[in-house]
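Hi V.,

You were right to ask for the full record rather than a summary. Here it is.
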Amino acid sequence: MSIDQHYDQSLDPPWILEQVRMAYPEGADLFQLAPLDQLHVGGIKASERLLRHLDPARHHHILDIGSGAGGLMRQASVMGFSMIGLDITHRLNRLNHGLNGRFSDPVSNPIITGDAHQLPFADRSLDLILFQHSFLNMPDNLRVISECRRVLKPGASLLMHEVVRGQQPDQMRYPVPWAEEASHSHLVTAETLQQQLQQAGFENVQLDDWSDEALAWRQRQLQKEESGHVSRAPLSPAMILGARFTAMGRNLVSNLQNHAIRVVEVVAVRP
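Predicted structure:
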């Protein structure tokens, strides 16, 4: 199974968009859409924390790699930033586009079906690139980092909110939201990621560990899921991830508790 098939198998964009329309006929806001489009660990608050790095004076051409259902892009649009979304899964891009039209403040961000290993952008053309729980799906992460350096302008930044390999990788349980099995997951340690960025020519690489906050958030979400709160809500992550979502949620808690994974923020500058 390819990575796009992993995300495709339970995905029905027209049906999901109809559920959104019926639940929120006047348009859904960021928090109402979050169960569909903020599926990373930490949810909408983690996106808010990541987006604090955006600067309207410097960041005009922004690329979200692995944009998925587009939650980060819409959240940035409320802050006045326009992003280009790139994702390898065409159905997720269709859903992203459709949710833009169901958003209470409609946006028209460009959305591209493409591969991060071969970015369809000119050299030195972007001010900022973001990854949010998408770098972990890249089989050749060195190639992706090299491509990012190529398309970023001098002085531009690479910004990541990512899951990385923890101190006990043998404790890893599947499935997780980004992978049905180990062959779909391409985690490296935070230290390796830092070294790879430096070897590719990035400077001022800074890492901030969000693992404790990530675990606390995922434990709260699991309590809601097991109490039935999520199943009663008009929108649910299961609409994207299918019946696998219950096991994925439990495994995320276990993987964080057992130090199989960590959650980090990474900022690096292209000289």
